[in-house]
């Protein structure tokens, strides 16, 4: 029986936001040879169906029984296959467009209560001080224990500008915390940029959406203009980026790699599941025009670092893996999530469908990331435990998910979280500690101890990435002077 965390990542708007790679709204053409139907098993199904209809304590509609049977069939395959009813199908489309309604929480279920996987940046939950690892035990006056995850998500959803009170248990707190949140339309800003000291550019991608590639092009252009047409180096921050659209991942890779360079390939049972994606316009330009055509030419040669952590999943791992394999960037941070499977959305009607795992993906050098992740070139831990890590350094990864696909190449990691293999080598010489504080049950105090802002001067991993960039710059300058 599954008594561990049910790690189905659902945003409080009912959106499966975590880890979709492919939104292929098409049927699989090349199917395997049909097999005989398992008559005895089907007879058992109809017997159970009839028994429930006849003997269950309350009348149950046929539609509900069939829908739940489909749910069970798909969710039993792996953590990412699922049935999409009308609401889930709509929410999935909205999430890839970067806008949906809710509180801004990615949540799962553990021991009968809702556990926060991650608050979305700039959302009502994030601003209120909610953290990864919080347990939601009450929604308004309703106890969560006994609810399904879907029921809890539906209760957290609602019209914008309406409020809901969440009662939260947090490790280290003596009393439950209460957060009164105002629902809003959550707009996930996919790309942010900032000019760092000494002329280094910084771009953070929080999720791979429909407009990510064009937004990245605008961000790079803005950085060059801010620094008078030049940059010394570039930091691409993919920490806590759960993934998104495959086309966007290919486009982001194309911004930094030469043309016609392999980014990723997939392999599955049917022909449609076998594909190769390269840095060509046809593989990433969703609307015909190439959003990368006017990028400065030297952006493909600048010294570059990619920041990752255990929350970097799926499309993030495609980008990091491609840049690492082609030796285009140095990967800095901690081991990534390890989601190396492709989900295809197959419509059943105009409003419903199934999300089915159809392939594994591989980096250009043929590495499978499934249940393993990308191992950084330079391993740098967080300076302190924050909302990035939840509590006690715990980090959920693909290998922790019940029923996850195995890595056919072997080498699945242990489940020790974001812990470096060589602790002493990865440990900072003077690692700052979180300041001591008096524990209270006030949300304001919780917020004050919240996550370090990515891109800030308190961002220890970013500072280490800058150090790596500066060393790269020295090496590039020396090599240039000898040629």
TrEMBL record:
Residues 427-436 have a biased composition (Low complexity). Its EC number is 3.4.21.102. GO terms for biological process: proteolysis; signal transduction. Residues 89-171 form the PDZ domain. One of its GO terms (molecular function) is serine-type endopeptidase activity. Residues 404-452 are annotated as: Disordered. It holds the Pfam family CtpB_N-like. Residues 412-426, 439-450 have a biased composition (Basic and acidic residues). Keywords: Hydrolase, Protease, Serine protease. GO terms for cellular component: outer membrane-bounded periplasmic space. NCBIfam families: prc. Belongs to the peptidase S41A family. This is Carboxyl-terminal processing protease. It comes from Chitinivorax tropicus. The lineage of its organism: Bacteria, Pseudomonadati, Pseudomonadota, Betaproteobacteria, Chitinivorax.
